[in-house]
Amino acid sequence: MLSRFIGLRRFFSSHSKNVRVAADKRTDIVFGANTDVGKTLVSAGLVRAALRRNTVHYVKPLQCGGNDQEFVRRHALLQPRPSNALSAEILFQWDTPTSPHIASRMENKPQSDKHVMEAVNKVLVETTNRSGPVTTIIETAGGVLSPSASSPNNTSARHATSETGWGWIPQADLYQPLLGQTPVVLVGDGRLGGISATLSSLESLLIRGYDVTALVLLETDYDNVSAMREYVSRGHKLRAGNGETLFSNPNDSVMSLPAIPSDPQVPLDEWYGSDAVKERFERLDDFLQQSWEGQLLDLQSLRCTGRQVLWWPFTQHSQVQRDNQVALVDSASQNDLNVLVDGTDGICLERVSMKDMSGSEGTLGIGHGDSSLALASAGATGRYGHVAFPQTVHAPAVALGQTLVGPRGPGQGWAKRVFFTEDAASGMEAALKMGMKTYIKRMREEENESIEWVICGQENSYHGGTLGVMNATEPSFFNDGQHPWYECKGLFLSVPTLGFRNGVLSISFPEGSELEGTQTTFESIDHVLDIDARMISRKLHSQYRELIEMQWLVYEHSSVNKKISSVVIEPVLSAVAGMSFVDPLWQKALIAVAESRNVPVIFDETTSGLQRLGVMSGRDILREDPDIGVYSKLLTGGILPLCATLTTEEIFETFLGEDEAMAMLHGSSHCAHASGCTSALHALHAYDLLSEHSRKAKVSPRMLSTHIW
Amino acid sequence: MLSRFIGLRRFFSSHSKNVRVAADKRTDIVFGANTDVGKTLVSAGLVRAALRRNTVHYVKPLQCGGNDQEFVRRHALLQPRPSNALSAEILFQWDTPTSPHIASRMENKPQSDKHVMEAVNKVLVETTNRSGPVTTIIETAGGVLSPSASSPNNTSARHATSETGWGWIPQADLYQPLLGQTPVVLVGDGRLGGISATLSSLESLLIRGYDVTALVLLETDYDNVSAMREYVSRGHKLRAGNGETLFSNPNDSVMSLPAIPSDPQVPLDEWYGSDAVKERFERLDDFLQQSWEGQLLDLQSLRCTGRQVLWWPFTQHSQVQRDNQVALVDSASQNDLNVLVDGTDGICLERVSMKDMSGSEGTLGIGHGDSSLALASAGATGRYGHVAFPQTVHAPAVALGQTLVGPRGPGQGWAKRVFFTEDAASGMEAALKMGMKTYIKRMREEENESIEWVICGQENSYHGGTLGVMNATEPSFFNDGQHPWYECKGLFLSVPTLGFRNGVLSISFPEGSELEGTQTTFESIDHVLDIDARMISRKLHSQYRELIEMQWLVYEHSSVNKKISSVVIEPVLSAVAGMSFVDPLWQKALIAVAESRNVPVIFDETTSGLQRLGVMSGRDILREDPDIGVYSKLLTGGILPLCATLTTEEIFETFLGEDEAMAMLHGSSHCAHASGCTSALHALHAYDLLSEHSRKAKVSPRMLSTHIW
């Protein structure tokens, strides 16, 4: 049960061949702070130095005009190394000496990102599976954010697109699937203005998650290398996404190269042959090798250290006896996790790209590693840091509030207020307080001790690990025995679920409640979700309603002091120990019962909301408004914790009064943190695009995870 | 009471003069993607266009060699405008045509950031308080991240420093205090490679929170403007930190200028005078003005919209009747919030920089708007997006775990395990489950229904708004009446607090518990915190202990079925409705009582931990190890929600077993989110620097907030 819940089986098998991750299979990727800063010069020098020990493969994935591999061959391959010690290739080539996105359009030779990256990956699989030590040097084209090739197949929301529809992305986005296993050498700009150019391109690489191992600059009169060393030696060190500080040894990691002859006609053989230049490149190669080996040691110990120091949720640690039971995720890109697994040789690691099924079931809305999302989130941190929220406004919080209750938000048509918390459990705890207090007010009841206020919910629900939401579920694996304070605070109804039985989509009724003579099979999910059509014959709805009425009556009458004061529904998707698909018609019937009794309805849409079901809220399927709705998981595009509890104005007004103690005294320091709010605005816009896309394509509502571009 | 709690009085009065924020007082700041991309050219054109309507003030804060204000005067000021329509000034000047950080060192003419920004602010106060419409154009020097001037007074952890100790920061960091009220015109790079340079510098501005309103490029053969328009028109639009999408009108906001004469000897009068150039600059000025007015309208409505749509925590909304009761925070920088308040004229807004007291009491550890923190956080998003955590490792989570239990972490010496949650309440709920279950196991008790497991805590505590932690406090304003499920689950002891009475630091004992003949006044806080010295005479400790023993006995005996199964302590600082300073000797005595009864001790250090008291954990003051410690607020440098519950191996082992249901089934989707973990690593390193700094300066432990550089 637990293993289902925690999604141990969350990885599909790999959809590409494994890349070996080994000390003698180092791959560097060379980026430039600009065009014409000496990328090929550095690549050739690096190839030459690496050839001291290893065979070397040089790759130029995208080449527009010229031929860098010839330059590299000419300057790198020296006697006495045999000529087959060096292999070099250009993967895609255009004649026009301009940016690849232009050249591919002008020459009508498109190359999609997918195609380019498949070719790059093929090279990596081949080189890392060669016997013997091999160094691979990948040289990018232009600056870090220079465009990739364009293609009519580059059509995702992250592609910049011309009127003719040929899209491109910046190269640092293109190569992002490689990150982690390809340490970056950034060739900085040694000229006047070069400090800014170098630092900015470094930042662009960092926000995309790259390991930038070394920074190399060609010397000019400006001594930019000293400024860079001063910068990376600050107290607040630059830190990469994997948590490591960068450039801890500035003398090795930030390096200058002697100036090249100012006359471009002078050949560079002499420069490469000089002791100073040779010494620098060899030092650079040694440093890169050392860093790579250190990084591998760290990666190899990560699962073991994790097992020693981490306490995972939903994990019986006594069952995690071996490192290979732990998933080592080194990076993620779009829908994939890059997982390192033990290699077939029993020594090395191997890198596997796997579909992120756990994310798809929860947090993966906009794809991993989207630079626009990382940038938006960082922008909010840069602008606000964090601002304490009570009685304060900042633009992202207000805009997010407006969006959530606005025409395209989940609260459209019913919600007026947004209450922020940090996570789904806390947002649901707030919802329970709001719902129960509102019922008490509606019924003009006193909160006297003789009445026990309870809720009515669905069986097999999970709303989080805090006590209030534990109490809002029936006794189960997840609470019984977990907490001495756990008490089942309500009536929890068994639910009719939908699933395929013998290939037919049909309703399974809870045991003992078989409903006779009702339609229980469906042609498609769309038919199940078409509540309007299903309400034409109201029979099943009435049966459901009667059944619920009866259970409710029995419950309240068998324990006279208990009073149901809120109904909690997880619309359509119920998420405990996997997902189950609850008949929305039954939920509609439950809402009818609640309404007839003036009991507020809470939608826990932390899993199902925000386009997970192809609609922003289950309201659009059930065609019933809740009083309170709770949204989380996908809210920030999955990257940060944030939760929004939406309510009607009536619920809000329950907490108004003369008395300060009547106010909602629920919150914590990071309430409505700016990064979360800005990320959420970005993600909600992406989901909007998605639903527009579905509408245009006349695709019926589906799970978001199958839709990610 | 509420107003104290929510920190309505959290703002000190302004420490600088107000800047008016008005439609006819627009200030633009011109940044360049590089040196020599045409910043001064664009500034002059913009000044010229703005002079159509307004008087204009041009400012070059830092000038090294040359004289840009002469160029601007020459090309911008045309008949028939009177010559006093344009004023122009250079604030700080060096002769050497190089980067300011070099020029200031070479010429031995330092200028500190503080000094430069005071001068810039003075200009803004003067120009925005002029009568009549005025446009101010601030032109930066070099590229966005080109260094500022250096000075021996630039010594913070964000300063890059030479061996001689003269520090500098990138210019985009220098001007960050202005953000929000100074829309940026970014002059891009129209040359080959310029797409990358332009995009990277744009990203550097965005992660620092700037509003980048317009992008201007000088035309060359490469048509970079088309690429930029394609890029900003992507589905995943660029989004600024304030949540707004950028460049929604690419035809106006991304603009090219006709190429300038290739011969640098040809004067530019003709170019500026041409219809095409004039038209572009006038369009740019119109667009900037329009955007500025739109932005002001948004800002002016923000408090009202916020009041309509937001539901603030800890706020009795019926008492918030007017917009001016709401703080409008437009940005934050270092220790200051930039707050917009109603101007004295009753129409405009004014911008006030205020010390962030609410942050200082909670989340402000590393200062607002630190670019290294924004970058680290974004890097983690770029690299991992989010990775589901159960049975998974990623580098930042493991590294953070190691750091927290490592030699400089709060768990040093006692904690072995780290359990992550999203916020302090959830982390404390986990701690309570852990503590109580461990006690039950220690005592080999059964969890039978006849025993009610309770806790012992301090009066006047607050651990969050979820039910479990509400139950772990005595009935009060914050729970009684808030939740029908609230039950007081324990013994809550009145605490002796410390404060100044008639100028003397002394202990206030709870009513009815005056302890006779004990030392109750102290020379300094250091004396209060020096537990070793205070333990030499054990008298007060013994008195405390006896008192606690007695209360404990009375409690357990008066209700035979209640059993105290955990003790919860907020070391030294207790934070409800403001902070109170609890006598640590009393807390030490409480721990002694707990230990004698085998009851686990939980430190709620969510407020007091992580250097807030000059030590990582109250353990270093109390000289007692807890079994469980909870850390949040400052953990991520304050920017993101994250909480770490640290435990001993014994506590962890309580949850081991054959049975999956024995595991800790507590958690939510964003557990150990990578951004939070990487930010925390960054912040903890900063706190390390801080404590080193204090040690070197022989400063005694103090509140972190007084220490921020």
Please explain how this structure is put together.
The structure is a homodimer of 709-residue chains. In chain A, helix 14 (395-405) runs parallel beside helix 23 (674-696) and helix 19 (539-558) packs across helix 20 (584-596). In chain A, the strands form five sheets. Chain A has a seven-stranded parallel sheet with strand order 4-3-5-2-8-9-10, sandwiched between helices. In chain A, 35% of the residues lie in helices and 19% in strands. Chain A starts with a helix and ends in a 13-residue tail after the last helix. The model of chain A is unreliable at 1-13 and 701-709 (pLDDT under 50). The longest helix of chain A is centred in the middle third of the chain and has 35 residues, at 275-309. In chain A, a hairpin with a 2-residue loop joins strand 18 (497-501) and strand 19. At the A-B interface, strand 6, helix 7, helix 8, helix 11 and strand 11 of A face strand 6, helix 7, helix 8, helix 11 and strand 11 of B. Strand 11 (327-333) of chain A pairs parallel with strand 14 of chain B.
**Distance between termini of chain A?**
32 Å
Pick out the low-confidence regions of chain A. Answer: 1-13, 701-709
Overall pLDDT level of chain A: 90
Shape of chain A: elongated
Number of helices of chain A: 23
For the largest interface in this structure, which chains are involved and how many residues does each contribute? A-B, 213 and 213 residues
Largest sheet strand order of chain A: 4-3-5-2-8-9-10
Structural class label of chain A: alpha/beta
Assembly category: homodimer
The fraction of residues in strands of chain A falls at 15-25%
Helix content of chain A: 25-40%
Q: How many beta-strand elements of chain A?
A: 26
Largest sheet of chain A: 7 strands, parallel
**Radius of gyration of chain A, whole Å:** 30 Å
